[in-house]
Amino acid sequence: MLNSNSVEVGVTPEGGHLFPVKFKFPDQVVEPMNVSAWENEAFTEPIPPMLRMLRGDFFAAPFGASDVTPDEERPHGTTANSKWTLQNADPEKLRLRLDKKVMGAEVFKEISVRPNESVIYQKHILKGGTGKLPVGHHAMLKLSSPCLLSFSAWQYAGTPPEPIESDPKLGRSLLKYPQNIVDLTRVKCEDGTGVDLTHYPVYPGFEDLWMLVADTSLPFSWSAVANPEEGWVWFSLKNPRILPNTVVWQSNGGRFYPPFSSRHTQVLGIEETVSNFHLGHRASIEQNSLQRQGFRTYLGLSGKKKITIPYIFGLVQITKSFNKVKKIEQTPTGIKITDINDRSIQTNVNLEFLTKE
What we know:
The chain has a 9-stranded antiparallel beta sheet, with no helix packed on it. It is 5% helix and 43% strand. The longest helix has 5 residues, at 77-81. A hairpin with a 6-residue loop joins strand 7 and strand 8 (105-112). The protein is mainly β.
């Protein structure tokens, strides 16, 4: 557990899921991350650890279905399901090692916080191994109040070839699949109507997923969720040359089977990846529509090569008059977040974390 004057964060030994995640301010403590509705239930049927403990944020390698390596078939792979062993701990940093290799690669997790920063830094390091591997972070927010979504400049947006659940007995989706998206505020639904994807939650009883590809020329890219009613903006920051894609999972009661059982509601996944949507290992490393457009969908493991994957998320307080985030810019001490009405707030963040080993 790490506990600074601004953040409290822990990690589960099984699956490496972040929990708890608390942002501490003088007048409130904000816990924005999702914890599954079934966290205290016992199941007779086999359920992967990743799904049984679903919470916070976890690192997926591979991202999505694990359908390539014979020794790992659980969704989102070994990193989201197996045991992590603590190697080192100090007041500002935890370092853990995954007990099982991924495609021959050793995997390490580093979680750190800094004084006076309402920010959590994560770094995953893959050493060695061989082959092609889609990876990603799987951050999930629980949103009981209306929220506004926004993103840095992107090159592509769209839905995958099919809905998350193609069998209507298992679930239902609102959006049209597949489709290219030009304007996030005017997206086609299956019934011919339209929806604004920058507002969430909307229309209970649906399960949807879509994806953005960031402008990789940016020094950093960002995702933001503004919650004016509760007084905060959650943001994530990444290096778009390492994790170019943002998979957005809108889970609002649209899966009918256990353990979801229509009760996984008002959950928003902001999942920073290099992958072919959520479609898994094989779909990401074989030729696909995203690759044909020039977009990357996997990392390449090679011999003694070390791959470092940095990722940051944090939270700032806002007033009820703050609106949708328009831009996030670098400042001498961190970032400035500006809304569409040009209101702004600054917060301390070490952006060098995204580019330094």
